[in-house]
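Example record for the data management plan.
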Amino acid sequence: MHKERLQQMVTMLRNLPEENQFNLESWSCGTSACAVGWACVNPVFIEQGLTRRHTGAPEFKGYTSWDAVEAFFEINATQSEHLFDYETYPKFCGTGPNEVADRIEAFIAE
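Corresponding structural encoding:
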């Protein structure tokens, strides 16, 4: 796991307005993007090679979509789903940046 990048993700998320409710079902949705969608447009992550394809999906060193997330953060598929997949969050409760940041912090601490 790339703890520094995950901690940078937490920092980025903590600095987003909490009223940003994420549609984690999508990398990006209009003005409010999911956690990875935000990372793909954040200069800290762009500088490290994480970008967005024209489709909005993340890209890193030739990997796209979930493979890019896993390669960038050096985590496996189960871990990336736990951190960023909408199906692992309670439905209908409006997941926001702090909920995702909390989960990442707990994961780092394990």
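Summary line stored alongside the record: The CA atoms of residues 24 and 86 lie 5 Å apart.
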